[in-house]
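Sample entry (187 residues):
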Amino acid sequence: SLGAFGRATGFGRGRGARRGPAMAFPGEDYEVPVRITLDEAFRGTERTVQLDGRSFTARIPPGATDGQRLRLRGKGSPGTNGGAPGDLYLQIHLEPHPLYRVSGHDLDLEVPLTPWEAALGAQVEIPTLTGRVTMKVPAGSKAGQKLRLAGKGLPQPGGGAGDLYAVLSIETPNPLTNVYRTKDGAY
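Predicted structure, serialized as tokens:
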């Protein structure tokens, strides 16, 4: 039928109307879970993904975070009738780490201190993802206090990095034994 300005509107198919080309439909999107270690998240990594009989390598950039969805354009199912292919989403899952708790691009690390180190202050070595660093613990520190090491977390997109937080814990050493022992074993 004709519209108000004399153009074909495509509504109604009267006698003698011709069929137009088949409609194009985009392909489906897929989502695939991918588990990576914290070290792989720090440096970036690659994973081989198999989908619908196809196999390809997916690059995971440095700084990928837990729960992040990475989109791979055009790697989903093919479209029909010339439609664009769908996308593939990688759902990132970070495996637990024995030292660090991850929060976005920031890391928390528990740092045990003796009561006298907390009271008097100390220099302690802290493991980071790039190696050990020395950190100053101020005198009068308390359990649960967080000391920030700027830029020692996971890389961030566009540059920079998250922070590493040293979470202080105070540990009482085991009681000293045999301190007053004499040669014959008596105290």
